[in-house]
Amino acid sequence: MATTREGTTFKRCGCTDPATGKRLGAACPRLKRANGTWSPTHGHWSYQIELPPTREGKRRQARRTGLATRDEASEALAHIRGLLDLAGEDDYTETRIADLVQQALRQRRELPGTEDVRRRLLGGADPSAEAPTVGEWLTEWVNTHAMAESTRRSYRGHITNHLAPHLGPIRLDRLRVVHVQACFDAIEERNAHIRACRDSRDEKARASVRGVRVVSASTQHRIRATLRSALNDALTRPDIPLQINPACHVNLPTAHRPRPRVWTRARLDHWRRTGEVPSPVMVWTPEQTRAFLDRARRDRLYALFHLIAHRGLRRGEAVGLPWAETSLEDQAVDIRIQMIQLGWDTLTSVPKSRAGERSVTLDEATTRVLQEWRTRQNKERLAAGPDWNESGLVFTHPDGTGLRPSWVSEEFARIAARAGLPPIRLHDLRHGAASLSLAAGVDVKVVSAELGHSTTAFTQDTYQSVFPRVAREAAEATAGLLSGDAARQA
């Protein structure tokens, strides 16, 4: 019997002892010739090697008998060792390679080839190549992958603030679900610490988290989506030996999309007493929206707020709307571009989805408001003379320069405060426009198309609010049917 460094080759036969009837195995004298060399005609060669344990930790071996020569057995041993070496120091991959070897032996098939294993488990990567760390890959990916600049800025925040500090040093090919889960567990632990400090009576503890926000469940899902997208792209790279996307198998707290809530009288009274806003997404009643528009008539950009409140344009779509895509004669505007803000910089981009590129029909009142605004802008162009900046935009400053989106939001908040109205975001005017259209009986498919949504379900679930007056009318209508039935029965 000859023993290799890792594994053993040996020769046996099926002869039995005449006295006991037991197999002689490797002790059969006919296995060797008189000169001590192996007999080429008697017995068969075998090999045996210890494999990595199963995933349950059970010991196992790779063993095959019936080989014709010792060289054949040694070559098979060397091949198995070479396959296991592909895993490097990765125990998970080593176990999976051992599974393939064990399966081939049980099914009496040839051992898997090196290139086949490399392609199936390592994505075709060269095992001798050093895989990048998670931090290195995320940095490369976010800087080079094609995406909208606003999306890139959001992804960079996720990477810098959450993913890189926890996962950055780990080699990409060794990233596992437990690592990603530990990252989000750490985020939840920090959330618990922030909440505990806020509730503490210790002033120093409260001061330490002042201005620090917890990472909400919806934000955690967006962080996971960033990691998942980056790892999906890594899976397509033949030079990166990533086997699965661990981000797909992480348990996160359920994130519910906040539903719009209407500023009813009770909620308004509660806000005035406590300063607490009931929901992140609040919608004015039709009466409150009219009060805002009445106050906004004194503002130069009344037409902008009127357009958003009536037709539900996004802030960036309204600010970036060009006259070339506006046809007041046909009472329609085409949404093809939008203005987005990255920090202090602004840039022009296309809508995020195909549904966002759409035509929005204008009502007669909005058309008249825009015609009056066009007349005013032409007067400002004449007054500015050579100092006029020909941006081609519908809404501009008096010198023709485009508006900064954040400045428009600040102007909206100032007008709302002067009108004595409860706070909402400028984007919530869009929610209100959707709710008004649905409450007026407009078909949800029409509303969804006008808003630029890909599905009507999203429009109903996210944007539809039930105004108190509409809800009361529905309740009275139902009660009327019942009272009518009762009267007929009497």
Automatic annotation (TrEMBL):
A GO BP entry: DNA integration
All residue ranges annotated as the Core-binding (CB) domain in the record? 132-235
**Alphabetized GO MF terms:** DNA binding
**Which keywords are on file for this protein?**
DNA integration, DNA recombination, DNA-binding
The Tyr recombinase domain covers: 279-476
Highest taxon of source: Bacteria
Q: Return the Pfam families for the record.
A: Phage_int_SAM_3, Phage_integrase
Q: Which residues form a coiled coil?
A: none
Do you know which PANTHER family this protein is assigned to?
INTEGRASE_RECOMBINASE PROTEIN MJ0367-RELATED, PHAGE INTEGRASE-RELATED
* Family that this chain belongs to: Belongs to the 'phage' integrase family.
What is this protein called in UniProt? Integrase
- Which organism is this entry from? Streptomonospora salina
